[in-house]
Amino acid sequence: MSYGELYLMMNKSKEIDVFETRPLVSIYIPTHNRMVKLKRALNSVFTQSYQNFEILVCDDASTDGTQSMMMKIVREDSRVRYFKNLVSEGACCARNLGIFAARGEFITGLDDDDEFMPKRLETLLKNWRDEYSFICSNFIDRYPNRRDEIYYKKHIKIINIEKLLHINEASNQVFTKTTRLREINGFDPTIRKLQDWDTWIRLCNAYGSFIRIKLPLYILNHDHASSESRVSNNMPLYLAMEDLYERNKNLYNQRASKKFKFSIKRLKNEYLFMDMIDEMLEFVSIKPIYYYIKQYIKLISSRNSQI
Is 145 left (phi over 0), alpha (psi -120 to 50) or beta? Predict the structure, then answer.
């Protein structure tokens, strides 16, 4: 049992006190031309075991009937609020509409094509600790015609910024105080890819380590039609990683910078034999051998396919 787990267990009574105050939770849902999937996402909130919430649907200029559907829902349920951009400004701007209009003490997000599991809000509230920047959970990857997969295999843990700088250990949604998300100015609309990771880094830097619990409380759906395009998908991951590093390079020490740059080299298929040796010696690990062999096999396969 880690120190973080022990600390949470010892302070269980305080967690219950937070839950019993029944704070309002704001849920922002950015959307664009996904009326059917949005309805599924909304239903996953309406069926939550914890019912003191508000929903802020942030429509990025949809043209598929989303507005008509939402106006009907708003009339029927006072907990639902609807905002719409007249022209498309991107997901980050849509999210920020909800963040800066939220009335709840706590806030979390939901993508329009995903779902909350029934006890997500209740469980996150019961495990909330004010000294941590935010809390997040495991999630389920759901693919058509395939068995569900739980993404993270590790138990409840406390994660610091050093770990978060190298890999997004916080998934795509977190639960935090509304004031905290506003203090860091929400999502950066100039970022094309890895916007969530960048936001969690800024939250973690401002407010400290965070909690991630093992229990999956979110469903990440992978049922997009080929016609559903995403601007972020047009940007190569290595370029997005380079941008992420440049924006936050003041947080990386020399060793951390070196490790991150090795990751970028692997994404670009430019991980050389001497890089493998250097990384093995620097971080006392044999994993670089696996990385190098994997890249070598990938390159050989690519060349053979072109013959």
Answer: left
Specify the amino acid at residue 105. Answer: E
What confidence tens digit (pLDDT) does each residue in 47-91 have?
999 999 999 999 999 999 999 999 999 999 999 999 999 999 999
**Amino acid code (one letter) for 11:** N
DSSP secondary-structure letter at 234?
Answer: G
- Fold designation for 3-221: Spore Coat Polysaccharide Biosynthesis Protein SpsA; Chain A (3.90.550)
What pLDDT score does 231 carry? 42
Pairwise CA distance, residues 225 & 206, whole Å: 38
Across the chain, mean pLDDT equals 91
Domain with CATH 3.90.550.10 in the chain: 3-221
Q: How far apart are CA 237 and CA 220, in angstroms?
A: 20
Average pLDDT on 253-263 reads 94
